User: Which sequence fits this backbone?
């Protein structure tokens, strides 16, 4: 479970996240939508304690993320698939992260197998395609077998095979009773994967509803999204 | 959720820091640049032997009157700048490479208290410096001693016991550079910035200080990092840009400050900054 | 070629490190002022002083800070992956290298000379007619060494650029420039005579005084290089580094 209470983040004059309050519940995939620059990634960084909120708080299973002693066991996250040292092998990259949370090489091999990278585990990440890096990032999130998972744009760069794989993976993970927060710009994909949708625009909460509720009033999820975010597509809010 | 999650939920703090240490050690040894840097440091020994061999050749072919006037510097003391710089750069890269790639986000997400990451990095680069410095110093010394023998007015015939303090202190300056590099890297988060400042501290500022009029040349020259090992062992520094006003203990304290102050400042920033 | 040049010029002036580097180099003016006031103060008690000219004393500061401009001109593109779009847009790799060399060379040339000349003029104005050692010659006498100092910065920046093309790594190139600038001259000075004078005379930082007809470094014998040899040596550093860089750029996949 992820709870946001009046979460606010200001960078100088820009309000990146503006009084955001919502709860992500376990057992289903929650889609996190919003135009570019609407504060999705910032929100995820705030949840992970990477950035400090200006005010408000973000709780994971009732506690601030930074107070967790072995956080990988509770929360797994994919923020930026490209954020890997190109000179390191996939196996070593994962082991670097795993070690810190007392996770052994066996689990590393397991997740590499699970995401389909076992064959290139010893290859330098620098030579990976974006799709392979996405799989590597997902593997890193899965390392600690966590109850809460966050994925920022995991579908980018994946082939149709990979897109379907992610969809099935997300649904399986949610079916196991985990909390899944998934951001994406692919509406059709989101409609197939997510059960609940949270939409933000200019750092503010625009909608928090089920997919069914959203498509009840609009022909498709995409139309619902367009209608709801029509006023928030400008960058750098001019409030 | 599964048996995996329930295993060892309450890890003791010491075990936790050992884990972070193991991770940082793996980070250093799993990239090629570290291997290259350490190989370069060890290459200093070869460079020293090469220079010694060249000098010995020139000495042997020189007429006797030139021989009696010929002098040679203690090569391991001159060449220590190579491992110092190498380990300094290793220190810088340990942290800035994470900022450049963005890996730092993942690193700090999995260790949210942050400072253990820096402590572990400091332990790893400090330990590598501690191994590399004395290895290079003693390696260069023994091989040069063997090549030079009693040439150059017996510069290499002093008993080892007399040279030991200098060899050890000079060797121990190498981990200081490693920690200084790491500290600068954490503060600046930029490879170019941190290496430039490191080079500035080590080479440029002493050159400028050496040009200052007295008494400031001597005063500031005494706290320059390069002159500190010499002051700790009480060497004659009159022909260098460095001063020699500090007693050995004070020089040791200043040397330790170079290593620790940037790291402490960096840790303070790391724990407060957004990543 | 003009389009490539203007693109490189835009790349250089649209990133902050360029301004940081020039800012640090410009510190020389402030340091020069403090320096001149300080040594002027000393004349009150000592009568006269033999102080080094501030633009000479602080030259390494400009050299190391502006070298970074040359290095980052290429390595920042490798770090970000921008090099691939760069080489797609300019498929003639030689043109890309020349444009980068032209822009980095021109920027460092202008920046270095401006900073050095301002430092020179300001310190000269502050010094007035007090006997400080460095202000006892006329401008026409000082000009050759001022120009030599300024262009040494450009040569170093181009060496940095060449090394950047070779190593493709910021750390690698800055670290490779350091030996050229600081380590080799130090080690050369420890060689037995007469070799130390011969080798020292070839070191890049020691070419600056030789261009002005002085000895390579204090405490060494006269230079054996003829004046044209000194300039050739100096340009040689930049040309060789860029040539090796070009060779690597042409041969390697981006």
Assistant:
């Amino acid at each position: 479970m992820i709870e946001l209470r009046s979460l606010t983040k200001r960078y100088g004059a820009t309000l990146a996240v503006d009084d955001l309050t919502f709860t992500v519940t376990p057992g289903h995939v929650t889609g996190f939508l919003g135009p570019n620059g609407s504060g999705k990634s910032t929100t995820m960084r705030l949840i992970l304690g990477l950035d400090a909120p200006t005010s408000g708080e973000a709780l994971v299973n009732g506690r601030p993320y930074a107070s967790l002693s072995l956080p990988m066991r509770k929360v797994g996250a994919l923020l930026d698939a490209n954020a890997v040292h190109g000179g390191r092998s996939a196996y070593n990259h994962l082991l670097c992260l795993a070690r810190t949370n007392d996770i052994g090489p066996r689990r590393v091999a397991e997740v590499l197998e699970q995401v389909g990278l076992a064959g290139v585990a010893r290859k330098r990440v620098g030579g990976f395609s974006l799709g392979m890096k996405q799989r590597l990032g997902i593997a890193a999130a899965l390392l600690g077998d966590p109850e809460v998972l966050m994925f920022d744009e995991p579908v980018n760069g994946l082939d149709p095979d990979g897109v379907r794989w992610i969809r099935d993976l997300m649904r399986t993970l949610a079916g196991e009773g985990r909390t899944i927060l998934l951001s994406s710009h692919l509406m059709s994909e989101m409609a197939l994967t997510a059960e609940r949708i949270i939409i933000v625009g200019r750092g503010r909460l625009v909608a928090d509803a089920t997919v069914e509720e959203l498509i009840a009033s609009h022909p498709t999820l995409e139309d619902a999204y367009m209608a709801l975010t029509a006023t928030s597509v400008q960058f750098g809010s001019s409030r | 959720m599964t048996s995996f999650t329930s295993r060892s939920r309450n890890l003791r703090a010491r075990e936790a820091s050992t884990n972070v240490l193991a991770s940082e050690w793996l980070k250093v040894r799993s990239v090629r640049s570290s291997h290259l840097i350490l190989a370069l440091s060890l290459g200093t020994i070869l460079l020293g032997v090469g220079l010694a061999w060249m000098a010995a050749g020139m000495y042997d072919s020189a007429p006797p009157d030139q021989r009696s006037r010929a002098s040679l510097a203690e090569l391991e003391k001159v060449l220590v700048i190579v491992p110092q710089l190498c380990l300094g750069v290793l220190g810088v890269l340990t942290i800035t490479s994470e900022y450049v790639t963005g890996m730092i986000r993942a690193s700090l997400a999995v260790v949210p208290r942050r400072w253990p990451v820096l402590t572990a990095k400091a332990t790893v680069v400090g330990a590598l410096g501690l191994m590399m410095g004395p290895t290079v110093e003693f390696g260069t010394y023994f091989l040069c001693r063997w090549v030079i023998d009693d040439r150059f007015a017996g510069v290499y015939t002093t008993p080892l016991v007399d040279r030991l303090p200098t060899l050890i202190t000079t060797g121990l300056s190498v981990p200081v550079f490693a920690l200084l590099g790491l500290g600068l890297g954490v503060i600046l988060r930029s490879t170019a910035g941190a290496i430039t400042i490191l080079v500035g501290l080590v080479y440029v500022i002493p050159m400028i200080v050496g040009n200052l009029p007295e008494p400031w040349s001597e005063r500031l020259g005494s706290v320059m990092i390069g002159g500190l090992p010499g002051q700790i062992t009480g060497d004659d520094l009159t022909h260098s840009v460095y001063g020699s006003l500090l007693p050995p203990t004070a020089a040791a304290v200043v040397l330790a400050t170079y290593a620790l102050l940037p790291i402490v400042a960096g840790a303070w920033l790391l724990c407060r900054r957004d990543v | 070629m003009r389009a490539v040049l203007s693109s490189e010029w835009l790349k250089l002036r649209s990133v902050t490190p360029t301004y940081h580097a020039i800012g640090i180099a410009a510190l020389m003016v402030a340091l020069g002022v403090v320096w001149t006031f300080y040594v002027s103060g000393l004349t009150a008690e000592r009568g006269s002083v033999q102080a080094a000219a501030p633009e000479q004393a602080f030259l390494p500061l400009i050299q190391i800070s502006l070298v970074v401009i040359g290095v980052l001109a290429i390595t920042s593109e490798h770090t970000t992956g921008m090099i691939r779009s760069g080489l797609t847009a300019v498929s003639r790799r030689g043109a890309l290298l020349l444009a980068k060399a032209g822009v980095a060379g021109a920027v460092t040339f202008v920046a270095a000379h401006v900073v050095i000349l301002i430092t020179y003029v300001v310190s000269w104005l502050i010094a007035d007619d007090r006997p400080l050692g460095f202000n006892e010659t006329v401008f026409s006498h000082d000009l050759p060494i001022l120009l030599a100092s300024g262009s040494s910065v450009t040569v170093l920046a181009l060496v940095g650029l060449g090394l950047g093309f070779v190593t493709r790594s910021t750390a690698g190139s800055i670290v490779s420039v350091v030996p050229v600038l600081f380590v080799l001259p130090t080690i050369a000075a420890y060689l037995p005579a007469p070799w130390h004078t011969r080798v020292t005379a070839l070191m890049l930082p020691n070419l600056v005084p030789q261009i002005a007809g002085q000895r390579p470094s204090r405490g060494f014998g006269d230079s054996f290089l003829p004046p044209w040899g000194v300039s050739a040596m100096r340009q040689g550093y930049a040309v060789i580094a860029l040539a090796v860089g070009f060779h690597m750029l042409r041969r390697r996949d981006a």
Notes: Residues 1-10 of chain B have pLDDT under 50 and may be disordered. Chain B has one domain: 2-272. The interface with chain C takes residues 33, 51, 54-55, 58-59, 70-73, 75, 78-79, 81-82, 85-86, 89, 92-93, 96, 100, 152, 190-193, 195-196, 199-200, 203-204, 207-208, 211-213, 216 of chain B (CB under 8 Å).
